[in-house]
Specification:
The protein is mainly alpha-helical. It has 16 helices and two strands. It has helices at residues 6-21, 41-53, 60-85, 92-98, 101-109, 114-129, 133-146, 154-189, 193-200, 220-223, 226-248, 274-282, 289-306, 323-328, 337-351, 358-378; strands at residues 31-32, 35-36. Helix 1 (6-21) crosses helix 2, helix 2 (41-53) crosses helix 7 and helix 3 runs parallel beside helix 6 (114-129). It is found in: Endoplasmic reticulum membrane.
Amino acid sequence: RRPADTEIDWKAYMQEVEGFANGTRDYTQLKGDTGPLVYPAGFVYIFLGLYYATGRGSDIRLAQYLFAGLYLLNLLLVFRIYCRTNKVPPYVFFFMCCASYRIHSIFVLRLFNDPVAMAILFLAINLFLEERWSWGCLFFSLAVSVKMNILLFAPGLLFLLLQRFGLLGCIPKLCICALLQVVLGLPFLLVNPVGYLTRSFDLGRQFQFKWTVNWRFLPEEIFQNRVFHAALLLAHLAGLGLFALHRWHSSKESILTLLKDPAKRKPASPRLTVNNILWQASCVCPLNASAWIVFILFSSNFLGVCCSRSLHYQFYVWYFHTLPYLLWCTPTTKLAHMPKVLLLGVIELCWNTYPSTVCSSLSLHICHGLILLQLWYGTAPTPVSHTPPPSRKPTATSKKAQ
């Protein structure tokens, strides 16, 4: 029998998009049993398709089959990223596929919109690894339009775009992201632009204390305090700044050189090609070109998760599939594999403790802190020559040189 709580969020989603199907274009009028619609417009279009595919939301079993297919597609996209990075041992994929009851529940039982956003995000990352930056930015923006948590990857993506294209070169990519948001939100922007923007991109929304997974050990008064929220935001910005300056940025020049045309930098790095990134990454940690891109994106998201004002149970999917990479992207001895597997197990246990307890939330923060320390010290700069390695292809000797 289907548990009663299966229908809670799904029913609310269907009620929210039903108003749009019936002609409502004022975003403030779209609501369900759990409250008003608070997701951007891409969510409406995707779940409107599910609304019609499942007989106006009545065939929940069909919806679960569709989400099971989404789950398999998501794994395929994640595995493809991991194969390109070549950092994670094969046995870890077992834990990613079979050892998380919570992830299976988020995808197939509860039918949340979080896995939809993450699947599109992983598609965008695959496109980045294929050097298809424009298409990657398009799908990144589409993922943001489903749920705003994807913006946690945005600082890392901005860094990569600046590194790859410079300031002027990355403006067209950012315009792609912005233009898609305008196009998707146009039906609502034409009717009530303020209502749409304040509802779908509400960064100041309060969370209920009873659902928090990560801050259960705090008194509720502190949890709801705006000063606490501001402190978390400052911690997040400080973490991003430190990683950008000392872990993502590998050149000895000022980070402001990222604003220059890549061809004019010293040493010149016109493209995020394999040779160039291998040289840049060797200054920080032994990652290949794909792994270096993934490291920046995944660590950007992880910093945001660590500093989140509240993590609800469905938010686990925000970073579950990135955890193995974050744990194994740094140099690992044979004896160090077991503690990393143990960390994965403790994090899983914390997310499966319902309701959360003081012990489970503290344990989650400790695990996050240990991963952050590993990322910081495991990617510390090493004293290497800053002359880019010569290309493997033999170059022709000029007549003058002869």
